[in-house]
UniProtKB/TrEMBL annotation:
PANTHER family: EPOXYQUEUOSINE REDUCTASE. Its EC number is 1.17.99.6. The gene is queG. This is tRNA epoxyqueuosine(34) reductase QueG. The lineage of its organism: Bacteria, Pseudomonadati, Myxococcota, Myxococcia, Myxococcales. Residues 192-222 form the 4Fe-4S ferredoxin-type domain. GO terms for molecular function: epoxyqueuosine reductase activity. It is an enzyme of class 1 (oxidoreductase).
Amino acid sequence: MVHLQPPKTQATRPEEAIVARAREMGFDAVGFARADLPLEADFAHYRAFIDQGMHGEMSWLAENAEVRAVATGEGMLAGARSVICLARRYQRPREDEERDAPLARTVARYARGSDYHNHLRRKLRKLAAFVRRLGTEEAPVFARPLCDDAPILERAWAARAGLGFIGKNGLLIVPGQGSMVLLGEVLTTLPLTPGVPMAERCGSCTRCLEACPTDAFVRPFVLDARRCIAYLTIEHHSDIAEEFRAPIGEHLFGCDDCQTVCPFNASNKQRAPAQGPFRPLEAWSSLDLTTLLELRGEDDEATQAVWARLAGSPVRRATAEGLARNAALVLGNRGDAEALPVLRRAAAAHPSAMVRETAGWAVRLLEGCRG
């Protein structure tokens, strides 16, 4: 067992100790924000997003709404004074990504390897334990790690902490790191010197907005998730509207298009190691779209065999039925007539009505292309 130790000297500032420990653990950026100051403007944008129904089927985003306005209180951490904001990049070297299996390249970069929640959550728990050790019996310090498991507007807090700025695609851009970063937080009762927010640096650039295949951006900084490919292929568990099917293209799970074109990512020379949790799972080299199209319910024996090969993968969030639907879309959009037999079988006999309908659409598309 690793015992985390507090700073060696009394003279070490807690901010310096936390930053040093976080970097030892592999985080690429660290910042601090006051937890007791409400996110007034950002919270107003969040409420407008929810009120207009742009969150689609992601009902949890509308829950505990008022808790998201501030990081202190019973809903988060009573008496919290600071939010420690952290970023871990997942973009790998281009030459390494180009060697990814063809099926892996249909998956968003963050999801090609192991589920980040698992390894990032472990690191955040360890960092929270380290922060607690900065306290004393007379003045104890409390800390709560967060990793997509609490109602917090993490990009807004990261921006307030000076970690980066919010780009026109709504994502946090960390100068020198880009936007392909995963975020986590540690709330603590320890008072820490807050960072200085950065000014937005996108200028007149609109590449991210123009790159979106489904025109999901209502305007700069405002994304309608109901039109976003990441939402449609992961969180949307019903039929995908026909207007989005062709624009989805070959995106099986998630989408990086608005990030791939961003100059802050193109110019970013720092990349996650080729090895490690973001390296694609070996399963992507042996699986194919036909196998995914034939996925049945979670209790199906063949599905369980595929799930075993994808153990620890975040793509399982889309469910077996959702991945089968997505596979049908990709097969149709590829325009490969050799996929017709398997698509016809799925259209006729797949147990999911959603998959049957989507496979039928792909068959009609391919028959039209062939004709």
